[in-house]
Amino acid sequence: MSAIVVNENKLAELISKACGPRSLSEYSRACGISPAHLSRVKSGICKPSKKMCFKLASERYAKEIGLSSQEFLIAAGYNGDEIESTKEFEAVAFQQSDVITLGIVSKRLMLCGCTYQLLSLGENKEVDFAFLVSQDGTKVRWEFVLSFSYQISDYVARRNAYYYNLGRILSFRPLQNTQYTLILNDEALYDELVQEINRYMVLANVSVALIDFEAMEIKKEVVLDRGGRNMKLSLI
Q1: Does residue 4 or residue 131 have the better pLDDT?
Q2: Where are the alpha helices (DSSP H) in 112-236?
Q3: What would the DSSP string read from start to end of 74-110?
Q4: What pTM value is reported for the model?
Q5: Is the pLDDT confidence value at 46 over 80?
Q6: How far is CA 16 from its chain centroid?
Q7: DSSP 3-state of 29
Q8: Long-range interactions of 29-35: CB distance < 8 A, separation 24+
Q9: In what order do the strands lie in the sheet containing 115-118?
Q10: For the chain, where do the domains classified as CATH 1.10.260.40 start and end?
């Protein structure tokens, strides 16, 4: 295996850019990395691992300004095959995010005193998970669609993500005692969707929620069903 040749100047530049107005310590804590270790990486004393490069690029502010894990990996000296293997790690991270989201939603249902059960989806690939929730004598089927992104940096990709999620919202079927929630982790995309969508085009009982994986909570939620009169359950 060839030795890793770090482009120290480029790596330090990326780390400084990702810090933004914050200190290096604040950025490192947001990434879940030791401040002392990140300082050594920035100074060229240590070589970052592939996992660390992913963490540096996945922090919220770094994502907002369009930094990608590939930029950090290239600056850290990783080659094409090694960068490709990191995509597998990112895929695992997405799977973990799904499980974490399921746990956060389950906790919310427990706190509100609902009786609920996780439903088997069978061959239904349109939703990620669903609950049958009993509250005040009424049973509601609550279906969840997860749309997580870590590196939406260019304009075309952002527009594709916007229209894809808009289509998901409009495609939910208006069924009795059924409601849907689309959960995003990209705040800019969330804000754009809830501000621009015509709620009178939404036929089903639908809400859009924003999850914060750093705080392990649902940060925002907006009901889109023609004024919100029919939604029986909420994540906030």
Answers
A1: 131
A2: 155-171, 187-196
A3: HHTT--HHHHHHHHHHHHHHHHHHHHHHHHHHHHHHH
A4: 0.63
A5: yes
A6: 24
A7: helix
A8: 30/59, 30/60, 30/61, 30/214, 31/55, 31/56, 31/58, 31/59
A9: 115-118, 129-135, 138-147, 178-184, 205-212, 217-223
A10: 8-78
Cα Dmax for the chain: 65
Between β-strands 205-212 and 217-223, what pairing exists: parallel, antiparallel or unpaired?
antiparallel
* Residues contacting residue 146 through CB under 8 Å, at least 6 positions apart: 97, 98, 101, 128, 183
Which CATH number applies to 8-78?
1.10.260.40
Q: What is the per-residue pLDDT across 119-159, written as a single tens digit (0 to 9) for each?
A: 988 766 688 899 999 977 889 999 999 887 654 555 666 67
Q: Choose among 223, 222, 236, 216: nearest CA to 104.
A: 216
180 strand-pairing partners:
143, 206
**Residues ≥6 apart with Cβ < 8 Å to 28:** 34, 35, 37, 38, 39
- Range list for CATH 3.40.1350 in the chain: 93-223
Q: What residues does 129 pair with on adjacent strands?
A: 144
Q: What is the pLDDT of residue 123?
A: 67
**Contact of 204 with 179, CB cutoff 8 Å:** yes
pLDDT tier at 38, thresholds 50, 70, 90: very high
User: Which amino acid belongs to residue 147?
Assistant: S
Q: How confident is the model at residue 29 (pLDDT cuts 50, 70, 90)?
A: confident
Right CATH number for 93-223 from 1.25.40, 3.30.1330, 3.40.1350, 3.90.120? 3.40.1350
